[in-house]
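User: For a benchmark we're assembling, each entry needs the component sequences followed by a predicted structure for the full assembly. Here are entry 17's components. Please fill in the structure.
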Amino acid sequence: MALIMNAFKSVVRQRWAYYFILPGYAIFLIFNFIPIIRTVHLSLFDFQLTSKTFIGLQNYADLFGDRIFVASLQNTLKYVALVTPVSVVLSLFIAATLFPLGKRWQSFLRGAFFIPNVVGGVIISAIWLWIYHPVHGFLNYMLSGLGVESVSWLADTATVIPATSLVVLTWTIGNMVIIYMAGLGSIPSVVYEAAKIDGASPFRTFWQITLPLLKPITSFIVTTQLIFCFQIWEVVYLLTSGGPLNKSSTLVFDIYKRAFVKGEYGAASAEGTVLIGIITVVTLLSLYLFRENRRFS
Amino acid sequence: MTIRFDRQRLTRAFMLLLVLVLAGVFVAPLYWMLTGSFKKMASTMKVPPDLIPLQPTLGNYAFLFNGTFPVLKWLLNSFAVSALSTLFCILVCTMMGYAFAKKDFPLKNTLFFTILISMMLPKQASLIPLFMTVKSMGMMNHLMGAVVPLIVWPYGIFMMRQFIGTIPGDLLESARIDGASEIAIFRKVVLPLAKPAVAALGVIFFLTAWNDFMWQLIVLKDVGKWTFNIGISVISRNPVANSPVINYGLAMAGGTLGALPVVALFIFLQKYFVTGLTMGAVKE
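Assistant: Structure for entry 17:
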């Protein structure tokens, strides 16, 4: 009883903390948190425009038998496997190369890489849609100058994923370059001086000193990139509409189609739940792999 | 000694060259967009394509403004959605960041943890219930429907908590001793000191809201209510205005128009972008 009284007194004493938090938290609950729980709940229903009946796990069974869903899942995994490592490595490479440059060049080139991010996926995709055009696209023109045959980048099942991945890369790398450059800047220069005194080559310095020191940032970047790549859909919607033959359809794109084009809200919720599950597992795995091993000598 | 030194320089030079080429790949499409916006439709379909528009025309821009599409309204809508949500976001995130950083209260860690978790969970997966909620609140096809779900940005709360945490508690204590009310402390001590973080948050969130394509696509149904990105997505993928094929020149003009405000924002406020992006990620 005393415990409850104490808790109550604590709440009243700290009531201003709650005043500051509650408005935002209420919105958070309504628009961020509860929808996620409701998605899982809705996945147990056959929910269309006019009807809503409880069917348990039937949606999931149907999903895994649906070849479009399976294709979307496979493609999403391909995107993640392709874009995450390439984007992280490339942005680290770019950041490391830009870092020793003078302030002006750093700013300028860093800006160059970030501009596609600023302009946004929609406009960037619109440009690439034209660049990738099989007949009057700039890419094929450039390749024909090198003697390579025209490729139908977005209509050929072999090239569609790399082609759309390239668009995604130009769109997201800038963000990571900025973060990595800040991370490099946060390493105290005494560390490098000590390394130089010990006679370490730049290569070794990078691998054995810089990289480990960047681990927390890399953890953040890899985790956020993974989460981002599992949700790739904009470029698909704008460039390929999932084609050709569903070879570029991703989970989120399929969720969008299922819900807002076909009106199968229950099935889409089930798919959303699957996505939530996958991302949760992957995030936890990533955080686990990058966990800090504290060693005290 | 000299050989190793030269090899290092060579490697560095090679790396720099590679980065410059990559930078070209990133920037070239924007050049292509700008020049394409001045090309007549026939020019956009030329093979080989003109690197510089040989017969530049303002026709695409004229078309954008001739009333077929409410382009100015689109720009206004994008701006309204972004500005409003940024305003609310700053308010909410600063308030919550302050409470989490400077106050101790029951359930503090649990509440913060739930917010942290939601950062991991994909908004895209919970579209349907969100859609249903917004609909039941009568915010469908309305500006606020696009704004409200964005407001509570976990990254923003995280950022403000981190920054406000660096404000010395003594300042707040002495204000309290002087008899200032909680609201006064927040307005007169916390907010002014948090200005750099607020600026950074505002800038990157504005961009986030501006490019929040999916939700805007779902909520805003009338052509007149579309944000600019929705409009561009339609023009760039469909033949418009009795043209038998997609008019890339028109799409590029639209793209250029839409890119101008955000690029200008970036060029003038680059430092705030960098602060905002790194504050949550890099521990100083």
